[in-house]
Structure formats: structure tokens, C-alpha cells
Write a structure and sequence with these properties.
The chain is of the alpha+beta class and 376 residues long. The chain has three domains: 72 residues, Dna Ligase, domain 1, CATH 3.30.1490; 125 residues, 2-Layer Sandwich (D-amino Acid Aminotransferase, Chain A, domain 1); 145 residues, Rossmann fold, CATH 3.40.50. α2 crosses α3 and α11 packs parallel to α12. The two termini are 34 Å apart. Bound molecules: guanosine-5'-diphosphate and manganese (II) ion. Guanosine-5'-diphosphate binds next to β2, β3 and β10.
Length: 376
């Protein structure tokens, strides 16, 4: 679950991070008063659940309350990567001397928290990672002992030579790690953490993703979910208990089981195409789930073919087949659909699908190849 910047700021500040004051507004008419209260200059920031708001024009500095009102007016209703801006944060602006990146994620290979720091903050960290990997320092933290003092010194020293600044950076990294652990985050990131000309360190952006599996014990955080700001497809998928991640390709995938879904995506890539999504319909799939999955996939205009890859264990292939038939009846859909069903009741499923225009495949490889061909 992704948190809005305003909520992430609140959490960070609760853990002692230096976060500039801010006021959330839901109507651009409130921007001037908020700016006056905080004191100018302020920064007017779109609250949307995607990165790169700055580049998209969703973050603007304002030197007067009038200017803040004007910029808030512009940012409201803006469309940023498909998400409409409905909330804006007015934050006290900070003068920037240097911008750093500081982030914590779970490192899958060491199965431990990993802190990444870079003196090249502000920009896309992915770009830094691919073009200047030497500018990122990665430190694996053993959660049983926490950050060790030498690790903290190493990270702070990687970002600055100034004694006072290093002290503040070390404190900030330590607080960020505590926040990450404390809210069961899968990612906690400050980009940028800045040093101002007077040598003060500030967290001027805040991003937290929560591990959904931790939400049962994070009631306060769970209540922060902002469905109005999520992509509709994601909200719909969650409500139907489907795990769904939108991607940029054109082969839509409906698969049962996360492992098989990953393998299907890998195979699509292996044969030179790109999957349009990750979609796991789960173990006990009813026809309704297949229908819901199709509904979600068809929202994406990039999708040119659909591959249904089901291994019938607890999931019965005839259930899935019925779901597909029902979906075809209810929906106006002319996309080619490749179906590979194997396992429990697969013969029955094939009978159900026999008199349709669905493209059958007996192996996963065949299914993937046919779906890629059909998407061309
Ligand atoms: P993002 O683009 O979604 O990551 O939004 P950020 O909050 O990181 O803001 C984008 C950029 O706007 C930053 O990298 C800064 O260059 C600039 N910016 C944001 N807040 C301030 C501020 O308080 N003062 C100054 N001078 N620039 C800011
Ligand atoms: Mn940022």
C-alpha cells in the first residue's frame, strides 16, 4: 500500500526526522491562507501516488501567498500519469545547497533491510543506478542488531565531509530506518534529503510503501489508505482479492498463482514481447474472478491479446472455462484470447471451450508464443 506524501511526512516527523511544516488543502482557495500561515516561500505539491511529480509540473515554488494560490489553482485537477490531483500540500520551502538520496528497502537476496544513500539526490534514483552506480552506497542491515555505528558513519561520510552535516545525516538515516521498521514498510525513501546553505539538513520529500502483509497490525496506517488516489484498476483488483500490477506491454495475462504468473511474464519476455500486467487470480478461482480479471485487464488500451494460463489444482479448470464463456457473453470484446488450462478437470474445460473462437494451447510455451503472435 502506498502512502501519500503528507502521511509519510507525518510518520517521518513522528520518528524525529527534520520535516518542514506543511498544510494539506483540498480546495485551491485555501492555498493563500496556508502560505501566509507557514510563511513564504512555500512549495505547492500535488498529492498523487506516483513519483516524478516535479518533472510532471506537480511541484512548484511560490514566493507570495498570491503566487501560491495561483500555482495551487494550476496543479488542482492536473493529470499526473493518469491520476487526477485532488489534494495539494503547501509546505514551507527550504533553500537547497545539496540534494541527497536516502532510502530503505528489503533486499531480497540477503533477505534483510538495505539502506541506499547517494550524493546525487533529487533526480530519478533509477537513472543514477544505471548510469552512475558508483554514486550509490548500499548497506545491508541485520534487523536483529540494527544499524551499527561504523555503518552509519560510512553512509554519512559518503554524503558529506562536513562534521555537523554528517551528524545530522546520520541522525536522519537512523530515524528513517526506525520508521521503516516501525510501520512495516517495504520502502521508505527521502528524495531529496537536502542540506541548506546554513548547514541544516531537511527531508523535503517523503515516500513510504507499506508491506500489505503487515497491515493487520498497523491499524492506524491501514486507515491512511487513499482509495480516491489509487489507480482504479488497482482498487478494483484489491476489492476482488486479485493481485494485480500494471505493466507497459501488450500481452495481458491472467494466471493463477504468483509463481506461475512470474514464470509466464518471464517467458513472454524471453520470446521478445512485453507483458501488460501481472495478475494472479489466486487459488480457488470462481467464474466471477475470471470475469473481474478480464474487466481489469480490458481497461488497459495497450492490451492486444490475452493469455490465460491456469494450472488446475484447487482451481478447477472447468470453473475457469465457465468464467471465460460468461465473460465473453457479458463483455463486448474482440481481443484474441489464448487459453492454456491444465490439471484438474482440464478435459471438461476443453469441452466447454471447444465451440468458441478461443485459441487453445496445450503447453505454456505454445500459449505464450500464440499470445505474442496474436498481439502483433
Ligand atoms: P517528486 O518529483 O515527486 O519526487 O517531488 P519532490 O518533493 O522531490 O520535489 C521535486 C523537486 O522540487 C525537488 O527535487 C526539488 O528540486 C524541488 N523542491 C521541492 N521542495 C523544494 C523546496 O522546499 N525548496 C526548493 N528550493 N526546491 C524544492
Ligand atoms: Mn522526490
Amino acid at each position: 500500500m502506498k502512502l501519500q506524501e503528507v502521511d509519510s511526512r507525518g510518520i517521518f516527523s513522528g520518528y524525529g526526522l527534520p520535516v518542514p511544516e506543511s498544510i494539506l488543502i483540498t480546495d485551491p482557495a485555501e492555498a493563500g491562507a496556508a502560505a501566509k500561515k507557514l510563511g513564504c516561500p512555500v512549495v505547492v505539491k500535488a498529492q498523487v501516488l506516483v513519483g516524478g511529480r516535479g518533472k510532471a509540473g506537480g511541484v512548484k515554488l511560490a514566493n507570495t501567498p498570491e503566487e501560491a494560490a495561483e500555482k495551487a489553482e494550476k496543479i488542482y485537477g492536473m493529470d499526473i500519469k493518469g491520476l487526477k490531483v485532488q489534494k495539494v500540500l503547501i509546505a514551507k520551502a527550504v533553500d537547497i545547497e545539496r540534494e541527497f538520496y536516502v532510502g530503505v528497502v528489503i533486499d531480497r537476496s540477503s533477505r534483510m533491510p538495505l539502506i541506499m544513500v547517494s550524493p546525487a539526490g533529487g533526480v530519478d534514483i533509477e537513472t543514477v543506478a544505471s548510469e552512475n552506480p558508483e554514486k550509490i552506497l548500499k548497506t545491508v542491515i541485520d534487523p536483529a542488531v540494527g544499524i551499527l555505528p561504523f555503518q552509519l558513519r560510512g553512509m554519512a561520510g559518503f554524503l558529506s565531509d562536513d562534521k555537523e552535516v554528517k551528524k545530522q545525516i546520520a541522525k536522519a538515516i537512523s530515524a528513517l530506518y526506525q520508521a521503516f521498521m516501525g510501520v512495516d514498510a517495504s520502502l521508505a525513501e527521502i528524495n531529496p534529503l537536502v542540506e541548506s546553505p546554513d548547514g541544516k539538513v531537511w527531508a523535503i520529500d517523503a515516500k513510504i510503501n507499506i508491506d500489505d502483509s503487515g497491515l493487520y497490525r498497523q491499524k492506524k496506517i491501514a486507515a491512511m489508505r487513499d482509495t480516491s488516489a489509487e489507480a482504479e484498476a488497482e482498487t478494483q483488483a484489491r476489492e476482488e482479492s486479485l493481485s494485480f500490477v500494471k505493466l507497459d506491454g501488450n500481452v495481458g495475462c491472467i494466471v493463477n498463482g504468483a509463481g506461475l504468473a512470474m514464470a509466464t511474464m518471464d517467458m513472454i519476455k524471453h520470446y521478445g514481447a512485453e507483458p501488460a500486467n501481472f495478475l494472479d487470480i489466486g487459488g480457488s478461482s470462481s467464474p466471477e474472478k475470471v470475469l473481474a480479471a478480464l474487466n481489469i485487464i480490458l481497461r488497459d488500451e495497450n492490451v492486444k491479446s490475452i493469455l490465460i494460463n491456469i494450472f488446475g489444482g484447487i482451481t478447477r479448470c472447468d470453473d475457469v472455462a465457465n468464467g471465460i464463456i460468461e465473460a465473453r457473453k457479458k463483455m463486448d470484446m474482440d481481443l484474441p484470447m489464448v487459453v492454456r488450462l491444465t490439471g484438474t478437470n482440464s478435459e471438461k474445460a476443453m469441452e466447454i471451450l471447444a465451440d468458441t473462437d478461443l485459441i487453445a494451447a496445450s503447453s505454456m510455451e505454445e500459449g505464450v508464443k500464440k499470445a505474442i503472435e496474436a498481439a502483433k
